[in-house]
Each structure stands twice: as C-alpha cells, then as structure tokens.
Amino acid sequence: MLMIETVILDLDDTLYDEIDYCKSGFAAVADHLAAPPDTPTTEHIFQTLWRQFSAGNREKTFNAALDAVGIEYDDRLIRELIHLYRNHTPNIVLPADSRQILDKLSPKYALALLSDGFLPAQRLKVRALRIEEYFKTIVYTEDLGRECWKPSPAGFEKILQTLNANPKSATYVADNERKDFIAPNTLGMTTIQLIRPNRIHTQTTNEPNAKPQHTIRQITDLPALFEQL
Q1: For the segment 103-161, what is each residue's pLDDT rounded down to a tens digit?
Q2: How far apart are the first and last CA of the chain?
C-alpha cells in the first residue's frame, strides 16, 4: 500500500466553521440595510436574518427577513444584498487547532486546498483566514467553470496533475457527504470526513461512492490517522 503523500483539504466546515462566515455576511447585510434613516437597527435586522437562516430558510432568507422587519424590496435589492454577502470582507478567524494541524502537516505532506463556492467569496475567506502559505496549490472549482463544482472530478484531477501526485497516495479531507467524496473515491483516493460540531451540511445520501472511507470528529485526529494509513 502506498503511503499518504498528498493531502487535499476542503475549506468550509473543514478548516473553520462556515456558520461564522454566514454570520459575518448577515452582519454586513444588516449594517447596509440599517444605514438609511427611519429603518430598523442593525441588530434587529441581523437577528431577523439569523432567525430565518437558523430555521432552515436558505433560499429566501433575505426576502423573508425583509418582510419580517417591514423593509420594502424588489428583485434589484435582493440581487444587491446577495452581491454584498458574497463580496464582503469576512470577519472569520482560523481556529487554533486547524492552525496547529496545518503547521504540523505542511512540512511532511504536499498540501492542497480544493473549494467550491462563488468567487470572490472563497478567495476572500482564504485571505481572511491567512492560510495561503500552507498550500502548494489552491483550486477554486468556480475558476474551472460552474460545471466543475463537486461532485465533478475536475478540481481533484487539476490538483493531482499540478502536483504530479498519484491518487493512491492522496487523501481528501472534507465534511459534506452529499458531494465531497464521490469524485475522490472514484479516483482511488483515501477519503476522510471531518464532522465539526457546528457544521451546516448534515445530510447523508445513498449515492454510490458517496460515503467517506474514514470519519473523524476533531481535525487534530488527522496525523494519527495518516500514520495508520
């Protein structure tokens, strides 16, 4: 069996809690909406947005929140808020355990980052977390085309080609069972699911090849697991 040489990491809900990014985005939107006179306070708008999101409204969060606080809107305003959310400078910090693991792994393995999501949101997250230095390559699947978002294998293939890596000696660490592990399983990589306590995506699936081969609950468990592999 080949030893692990290449470690590909997911970003959201793997290296940090994505819920912190969501709160940061809603705070930016609330601050923007509260700017005109005679409008609800930033805190009131933020709490309304957060109640909608926490209740599971992920598709029409802005619409429902604006209805609730009594702010009139049209499609143009909704598009403006979506743009603001995706382009704001996020107030997020890399957890200490993630920094510790990146410090520990980067001298021993070729690290890569693979992330889905809208640009420039993903780039702004990486910049805010200050993690670029750890990775030999970073692939944002949006750069390859929307059709290359996971579960497409395109991002994985790009990293393997860039690093001249054998998929049999590569592993992917991520969180979302519905999309993250299908491609790397098919390519012959080792797959590891990290289940963070505050993760957003908790759905499971019966899709073939979707199940991770290993599961951990703390990112600090990675070095010991790599040694076993």
Answers
A1: 999 999 999 999 999 999 999 999 999 999 999 999 999 999 999 999 999 999 999 99
A2: 9
What average pLDDT does range 18-23 have in this prediction? 97
Do 28 and 84 touch, CB atoms closer than 8 A?
yes
The position carrying tokens 């085309």 is: 145
Rg (CA), the chain: 19
* Distance between CA atoms of residues 168 and 105, nearest Å: 18
CB 135 within 8 A of CB 11: no
Give the fold, CATH level 3, of 6-16+94-228.
Rossmann fold (3.40.50)
The 10s digit of each residue's pLDDT in 160-175 is 999 999 999 999 999 9
Written as six digits, the tokens of 216 are 């951990």
Is residue 113 within 8 Å of residue 126, measured between CB atoms?
A: yes
CB-CB neighbours of 202 under 10 Å: 11
DSSP string computed for 100-152: HHHHHHTTTSEEEEEE-S-TTHHHHHHHHHT-GGG-SEEEEHHHH-GGGSTT-
Helix, strand, coil abundance in the chain, percent, nearest 5: 50, 15, 40
Q: Judge whether 172 and 8 are in contact, CB under 8 Å.
A: yes
146 burial via Cβ count (<10 Å: 0-12, 13-18, 19+): exposed
Residues 180 and 199 sit within 8 Å (Cβ to Cβ) = no
Strands, E assignment, the chain: 6-9, 110-115, 137-140, 170-174, 190-194, 214-216
Nearest Cα residue to 229 out of 218, 213, 217: 213
